[in-house]
Design a protein that fits this description.
Layout (H helix, E strand, L loop, with lengths): L11 H11 L3 H20 L3 E4 L2 E3 L5 H13 L17 H8 L3 H6 L2 E3 H12 L6 H13 L20 H10 L11 E2 L9 E5 L5 E8 L11 E6 L3 E2 L2 H16 L5 E7 L4 H10 L2 E4 H4 L1 H6 L14 E2 L12
C-alpha cells in the first residue's frame, strides 16, 4: 500500500510523522494503520466503546463511558493520557464493577476496550514477541496521541470506514448463510423454501424485506421451519430501523400464521436506544463487523466505496473529549 495511494486510511502527514517516530518505512506504517483501523472500526460498530486516552470513541450515551467520565472528572479534570493509566484496566470486569459499581448485565451489554486490549489484538495480528510489547505500546501511543487536542484545543476526528451498498451486503450473506450460525441462525435463503423466502421479498406495494431465511435446523431459540426476517443496513442505525423491522415481522406473522417469525437486524452499528428497544421487542442484532464483513472488504479494497444511508441511519461516532457534557 503506497502512502500516496487513496487507499491509505490516514492522511499523509500522519503516516509520515509516525514513520519518523516508529523508524519504519512509510508503506509499512500505512499497512499497520490499516490494521489498527480495522480493529477499532470493528469494535466501535459492534457496540464497544474504545477508551484509549486521548482517543475516546463510541456513542456518547454509552452507559459505561458515562460512568467512567463522571468518575474521571471527579478526580482528574485534565485530559492528559498519563492521568488515566488505570483506564488500561477497562477490560478487567472485576475492577470496573468495583470502581463504578455497575451491574454485570451493563458490562455484558455495553462492553469497553482499552489500550491494553488493542495492544493484545495487534500482537495477535503482527505476531511480535511478548518482549516487544513495551516497544509496540509506545508506538501505539504515538498513534493514539494524534487524536488528542492540538495547540488550539481542536481534536482530529476519527473516521469509520464506510461499507458500501446494502445490496453487496445482501449478496455476501446469501452466498454464505452459514456465517449466521455462530449467532444462532441456521438459515437458507433459497427461494425454494417458500413464497416468502429469499432476497428482496415484497410484502406489499410499499414494503420489501431485505432477506427472509428459512431455519434449516433448530439452533438456539430458532426452531427448524421458522422464518427469520432480516433487515440490513450498511450504516449505524437508530430506532426508525426498528419500526421497519417490526412492520416486516408482523406482516409476515399475519401472512404465514403457521410459522414462527423472528426479527434480526444486521447493521454496521446501532445506537444505545435501539439496542435496548430491540431487546424489548424480542428481536436480535448482529453487527457486520462480528460477521466478518469488514475483513472481507479488506481483501477487496475499493476507493469508490461510500456510505449508503439506510432508514434511520446516524453518523458513526467520532472522537470525544472526556469533558463531554452529560
Amino acid at each position: 500500500m503506497s502512502v500516496a495511494s487513496p487507499l491509505s486510511v490516514e492522511p499523509p502527514w500522519v503516516v509520515h510523522e509516525l514513520a519518523a517516530q516508529w523508524f519504519l518505512p512509510a508503506t509499512t506504517v500505512a499497512e499497520r494503520l490499516a490494521d489498527l483501523h480495522r480493529v477499532v472500526d470493528g469494535w466501535v460498530t459492534a457496540g464497544t466503546f474504545v477508551l484509549a486516552p486521548p482517543l475516546y470513541l463510541g456513542s456518547p450515551d454509552h452507559p459505561v463511558f458515562r460512568a467512567l467520565s463522571e468518575h474521571v472528572r471527579a478526580r482528574h479534570p485534565d485530559d492528559r493520557p498519563a492521568a488515566f493509566c488505570y483506564w488500561d484496566d477497562v477490560g478487567n470486569r472485576a475492577k470496573l464493577e468495583a470502581l463504578l459499581r455497575l451491574p454485570s448485565y451493563t458490562l455484558d451489554t455495553f462492553p469497553v476496550r482499552g489500550r491494553v486490549d488493542l495492544l493484545t489484538e495487534l500482537q495477535r495480528r503482527w505476531r511480535f514477541p511478548s518482549s516487544e510489547r513495551g516497544h509496540e505500546e509506545a508506538r501505539l501511543q504515538h498513534w493514539l496521541g494524534s487524536y488528542g487536542p492540538d495547540v488550539a484545543g481542536v481534536r482530529r476526528g476519527y473516521v469509520v470506514a464506510p461499507l458500501g451498498p446494502v445490496s453487496a451486503v445482501s449478496a455476501w450473506l446469501e452466498s454464505g448463510p452459514g456465517r449466521l450460525e455462530p449467532f444462532g441462525y441456521a438459515l437458507s435463503f433459497a427461494p425454494s423454501g417458500g413464497r416468502y423466502v429469499g432476497s428482496r421479498v415484497p410484502l406489499d406495494a410499499r414494503s420489501t424485506v431485505d432477506l427472509v431465511g428459512l431455519a434449516t435446523r433448530s439452533l438456539g431459540r430458532v426452531a427448524a421451519g421458522d422464518l427469520v426476517a432480516v433487515a440490513l443496513a450498511a450504516s449505524c442505525v437508530d430506532t426508525p430501523a426498528l419500526d421497519r423491522l417490526m412492520r416486516h415481522v408482523y406482516t409476515l406473522r399475519r401472512r404465514v400464521p403457521a410459522r414462527c417469525v423472528h426479527g434480526l437486524l444486521v447493521s454496521d452499528g446501532v445506537t444505545v436506544a435501539l439496542s435496548g428497544a430491540l431487546l424489548d421487542q424480542g428481536f436480535d442484532h448482529v453487527s457486520l463487523s462480528d460477521l466478518g464483513y469488514r475483513d472481507h472488504l479488506a481483501q477487496h479494497p475499493d476507493v469508490s466505496r461510500c456510505l449508503e444511508e439506510s432508514e434511520g441511519w446516524v453518523p458513526h461516532p467520532t472522537s470525544l473529549a472526556v469533558d463531554l457534557a452529560v
